[in-house]
Amino acid sequence: METHSAYSFLAFLASAASAAALVIHLLRGAKLQIFRYFKISPRMHLFFTVAYALTTAVSLATWVCHAQGWDSHWFISVTLTMVLVLLIVELVLIIARRVNTQACAQVQSVLVVAAHPDDLEIAAGGTLAKLVDRGHQVHAVIMCHGAQGGDASVRPDEARAGSSFLGLASVTIHDLEDRHLEEHSATMVDYIEEAIAAHAPDVIITHSRHEVHQDHAAVHHAVMRAARNHHSILCMESPSVTSDFTPTVFVETTEYADVKKAAIAAHANQSDKPYMSDHVVDGITHFRGRQSRLGKAEAFEVMRLRLSNVMPL
């Protein structure tokens, strides 16, 4: 009787594991939160898929055996052992891959300078998450609360949530006048110089000079002044770039498509804007991917680039 109870309990555990894996597998948002919290590549999705499939198979087979009145004790023991071994091996391989990837890369510092709270996620969210997962330190400076484009009381918190989700090491949000950043050019230069001194970035990412949005263009020029002696500056592609935007650097973000969209979704106050929709975001990354013969990609213009600072992505 005790043995039968023990195996029944094991069957229950198999069912519970199956249900838990199913929930994680289906809840896209929760799954992404786990990825970003542990700063693990979206390849971790494979782990949950395997866990869900195997534990579901065990659960179904166990209940079938019980329903048919078969002696399922041996079957349960062997199958649960196989499942446990497979999941441990899979998890070890994933962690080893992550550790090896980071160990092979020289840790570098990246500074992103943006005008508004949602700019960096829209233009470079996939790249920034990928940099974080490669072990690099990514810092962000945002120049205003975006009061003219939404609720300034919530947008800074949304920016912190989006940056935290991507895994950024820090985000500094200033409160300059939205849509009038050009009038605060000297102040922005001071802010950027302070960030450069604090973080010693190997690469700086900011807006392009080819912009119809006056704040984006103002931030670009402020960065070029503040980083006049810096060796590596890339310009990201926002929805407001002009046809003169000519990217020559492409970062594959196929595995980070959901991460990018989830980071953008953190800016709920901007959800009604057409450029925030998934199909627009996917359209841009698909286009840049085709252009660079990658799956999905984010594109950058090079202002200056020291080859020794090229990071394997």
UniProtKB/TrEMBL annotation:
Give a Pfam family name.
PIG-L
Gene3D superfamilies xref list: LmbE-like
Q: Does the keyword RNA-binding apply?
A: no
Keywords for this protein: Membrane, Transmembrane, Transmembrane helix, Zinc
Q: Name one GO biological process term.
A: glycoside metabolic process
Q: Which InterPro entries match?
A: GlcNAc_PI_deacetylase-related (IPR003737), LmbE-like_dom_sf (IPR024078)
Q: Name one GO molecular function term.
A: hydrolase activity, acting on carbon-nitrogen (but not peptide) bonds, in linear amides
Q: Which domain of life is it from?
A: Bacteria
Task: Report the protein name in the record.
Answer: LmbE family N-acetylglucosaminyl deacetylase
